[in-house]
Amino acid sequence: MENIVADFLDYLTGVKNYSSHTRTAYESDVRDFLAFYERFNGTSPFPSDLSRVDTICFRSFLADRQRRGLSPKSTARALSSLRGFYKFLAKNHGVKNDAITLISSPRVPRKLSKAIDPIDVENMHDAIREIDAREPWIAARDWALVVLLFGCGLRISEALSLRNHDIMGRPAVLRILGKGGKERLVPVLPAVWNAIDKYISARPYGNMPDDEIFRSVRGLPMAEKVVESLRHYLQLPDYVTPHALRHTFATALLSDGADLRSLQELLGHSSLSTTQLYTKVNMAEISNIYAAAHPRAKDAD
Question: How far is it, in rounded angstroms, from Cα 95 to Cα 47?
Fold first, then answer.
């Protein structure tokens, strides 16, 4: 079974082009099920045993995760990982099991994305200058990263994976490789280029074409610490994360009239339903404005 799991993980990265983070999540989920199978049946499974797993075992696995306090979102992901594993088994090892297709995923509440107040984004500039006062190139780096996330709506992993050759010549659009190896084109504002140019002209190393744009103090690829330190420094809410800058980008575009299909392309969402969550965010803002400003709003209380 270990060899098959290893083959599956190699398939995820080599064929499906999944990230190392996604590979780790799949491995954790599949191994969690195999460990449960051993507890449930009293023996470790052989590949042929997996073809005979019934709906009772699968549902007991989901119930076991609930008893362990794992969230519906985590369990839904585990079931998705397990389905992917079974598809791999059927395609590559002749192990088929239709019972897995009969199991419904736990209902996961869709949370509204929280955007950062624009004034807080502006305050980040002065905060960065104060935090990194002794190292001007680090201040330039941190601000360039914030502006890139906010101005282009990139995921933090996408921003940190950019290399110097990706930005040579200041292209009007960046070619971004997103989740699942999906490629998209993202326009770049002049303000973003200005911030990146200031950083590049000030950084002491990392100027080779294949070097990552954003580097740590020791010249290593940068970790996701910039926004976290800014959040603590400015005493902002916990939802202020690198991903919140992406939400702010999306909410601002939608508020200014961007259509959902265009926003979907810019964000790299595979499903329009994910992008549609931003309409709920926008409607919530409109409702708050209505409640605060409309002269008849309080009459409804």
Answer: 7
Tokens encoding 174:
């960046």
CA distances, 271 to each of 19, 154, 261 (Å): 19, 17, 10
- 296 C-beta neighbours (distance < 10 Å), count: 7
Tokens 């989920």 belong to residue: 29
Predicted TM-score (pTM) of the model is 0.59
Question: What is the SS3 string spanning 112-130?
Answer: CCCCCCHHHHHHHHHHHHH
- Residue 133, helix vs strand vs coil: coil
Cβ–Cβ < 8 Å for 222, 92? no
Residues with catalytic annotation? Answer: 155, 179, 243, 246, 269, 278
The CA-to-CA distance between both ends of the chain, in Å, stands at 62
Distance of CA 274 to the CA centre of its chain: 12
Q: What is the pLDDT of residues 51-110, one digit of tens each?
A: 999 999 999 999 999 999 988 888 988 999 999 999 999 999 999 999 999 998 887 666
Q: How far apart are CA 83 and CA 28, in angstroms?
A: 14
User: Looking at this protein, which amino acid is placed at residue 107?
Assistant: R
